[in-house]
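This part of the workshop introduces the protein records we will be handling. As an example, a complete record with its sequence and its structure tokens follows.
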Amino acid sequence: MQRIDQIIKSVAIEAFRSTWKVDLQEDQLQVQKTRREFQGDFTLVVFPLLKHSKSTPEETANALGSYMVGHSEMLSGYNVIKGFLNLEVSSKYWKTLVNGDLRSPNYGFTGVEKNSPRVMIEFSSPNTNKPLHLGHIRNNLLGHSISRIMEATGHRVTSVNLVNDRGIHICKSMLAWQKDGQGESPESAGMKGDHLVGKYYVQFDRVYKAQVEEQVSLGKSRKEAEAEASILLEAREMLRKWEAGDPEVRKLWERMNGWVYEGFEETYRRLGVKFDRTYYESETYKLGKEIVLKGVAEGILYKKEDGSIWANLEDEGLDHKLLLRSDGTSVYMTQDVGTAHQRHEEVGFDSHIYVVGNEQNYHFQVLALVLKKLGFAWADKLYHLSYGMVELPEGKMKSREGTVVDADDLMDEMIKTARQMSEELGKLEGYGQDEKDQIYRQVGMGALKYFILKVDPKKNMTFDPRESVDFNGNTGPFIQYTYARIQSVLRKGAEERLPMGDLELNEKEVSLIRMMHEYPEIIQESSRTLNPSLIANFLYDLAKEFNQFYHDYSILSAESEELVEQRLLLVDVIGRIIRSGMELLGIEVPERM
């Protein structure tokens, strides 16, 4: 579909050629939406064209407007305000959009072809020492939505998860369970496996802090006490044994990670998140070590006297970065080097997006520099989508202290809140229990997803569960209820949607169609900037505009059957676009509520 601004530019080029014998290029023309205080739909900025017309702004604009309205059925009128040509799109053209493009199930989408750009998107990336929490929810929802949006804009998307299943933090949970678990399992404890393992991660930190305080009371400095706490030294020894392949340590590791994976899968299912591929740090870190050792052999990296391996990044304006510890164990950077290399070998991506919080900005800056230093030209194709932190009204969360909001608990709370607010408002009276439960789930999860995705990813945010489930305002339930209202109107109307006839459109109908015309541009910009909030807030504006129309004008009781049909078709396409946009956000819309 050719956009209206593109058509306006082509007609303006034709007008200039005919009037002033000058051939302009599209990039020389500025077309924007007309400001609300002026009459018109689109505005052509005339000032940059005066050097070609050799005339005043008003004379140039009037000559252009007269020619363009006379030579394009799309345009019905114009007015000139100083150096701005405000153009009105004809009612007939708006109806052509509703009868055609807007009814397409793929309106605004770009087809994926064999030679479409290939993009890999990594998100989630959990540690197997604790359950997913509120911060992970933002990560997963962003990654999942961006994957859908990129696919909608013609990219071949591979969504991947990197499970951080090895390292000192994993050994902390293992050691605490080994010391105090007494054989406890998810079945015996009646807990999800990831929650059980997370309990022992908190237990480790409790013992560690007690040991530190004890040593400080005996006269050691806090720095010494923190470095020499016996339980931390035991965890480091366990990591060394793990990397050496110790059978007992490996058996315990496999057992506890197995519990966590089962827990993760249940959480992902409830979130509606899936991955095309899952990578495990325990498998990729070896490749990273090989690449690092090769870098040393080639003189790109260097080894210190204690055996540790480093990259010198002073020429890039940074410091020195550790890649292998003196005992030969890996750091996060090691496995990220290996994982990136493996993925490029397997997929050959045109770009690789890491959806990771902004506390890791330095890490991904260094990763790209290290890979480039090692000779990988594709290092320039790595991009870190750095998103802000999520806080609760009462402040930050801390995993070690057990003050995080677990994803599972939050989802349960959201559904419970949706049930309470629906019952208070009497929304679902007369519905069967199964349908009620389904709608409670859709509304609760829709509220959670929308509240998080409506915020620009780069911004920190505060999540307020009850505010997110409000059926009024910029919330998921408000948009879901609008969609359900639309479906109710359509069920009461004729089943067949006939094309719009010759009736004029009122101002509110034109406003709705003009908004829907912008949907493809919103998707493209959301993809370009990796920002789902553009789609979320567009949907809110569209739902708000529809509700005002619904309040001001009759639909099923309009003055004539032809007008009823015209408005039903308009309502139908509004519903289609709301559903399409919500799907890009990973949000379900109930057919009734």
